[in-house]
Write a structure and sequence with these properties.
By secondary structure, this protein is an all-alpha fold. Helices cover about 70% and strands about 0% of the residues. Helix 2 (about 15-35) runs antiparallel to helix 3 (about 40-65).
């Protein structure tokens, strides 16, 4: 499974531009689907939004060798 993850990770972009573009395209397609009363277009638009906001970013983070570090909160000393 890990052997397959490395080539797949090369196809996922590191910048946020493609993800935002896919999300906006999903919103436009979903809106057009509602206007055209087409359930298929609405479903495809929702799927595009879900892929752009959840699946692809999580897949990118999961396949990175060095995932981004979260900033830790600084400990505030207690005053006695």
């Amino acid at each position: 499974m890990l052997d397959l993850a490395a080539p797949v990770a090369d196809f996922l972009p590191r910048s946020t531009g493609p993800y935002v573009s896919l999300m906006l395209a999903g919103f436009l397609l979903g809106t057009f689907g509602h206007l055209a009363k087409s359930r298929w277009l609405v479903a495809i638009g929702v799927l595009m939004i879900f892929l752009a906001t959840v699946v692809f970013p999580l897949a990118r983070i999961a396949t990175e060798d060095n995932p981004p570090h979260q900033q830790t909160q600084q400990q505030v000393p207690e005053i006695p």
